[in-house]
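Summary of Year 1 activities. Much of the first year was spent building the evaluation harness for sequence design. The harness presents a backbone, in tokenized form, and records the residue chosen at every position. We chose the following record to illustrate the format because it has been used consistently in internal testing since the harness was completed.
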């Protein structure tokens, strides 16, 4: 009988920083860490990820541009070991998850319509 057991820790933090009084410039920082872990007969080495984004709003909040960076420390590497019976398998992979993206959003139309999303009650609902 082959038995693996290990205490595994997962930690995550997500922080938002507002840089201006008008709240039109913000930074988000997100980081997570997974310690050494076990799944079946496979052992996984620790891995982590750091993501940052900077967002600027304009046109009275209707438009925004966001710069997003993911896996900035190039630490999202998966190392797996499996030793069972007379087999030994080792996998060291990195899927190149580093990326930088620019996102643009704009809200068209009148966002200030009063009662536009209210539903009218039916006669049956008013009776109850």
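For this record, the design step produced the sequence shown next.
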């Amino acid at each position: 009988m082959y038995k693996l057991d290990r205490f595994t820790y997962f930690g995550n933090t997500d922080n938002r920083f507002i840089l201006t009084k008008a709240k039109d410039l913000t930074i988000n920082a997100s980081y997570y860490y997974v310690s050494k872990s076990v799944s079946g007969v496979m052992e996984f080495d620790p891995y982590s990820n750091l993501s940052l984004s900077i967002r600027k709003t304009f046109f009275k909040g209707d438009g925004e541009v966001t710069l997003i960076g993911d896996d900035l420390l190039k630490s999202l590497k998966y190392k797996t070991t499996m030793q069972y019976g007379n087999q030994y398998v080792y996998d060291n992979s990195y899927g190149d998850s580093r990326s930088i993206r620019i996102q643009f959003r704009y809200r068209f139309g009148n966002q200030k319509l009063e009662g536009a999303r209210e539903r009218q009650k039916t006669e049956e609902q008013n009776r109850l």
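Strands lie at 10-18, 25-34, 37-39, 42-44, 47-58, 63-70, 78-84, 87-93, 99-106. Quantitative recovery figures across the full test set are reported in Table 2.
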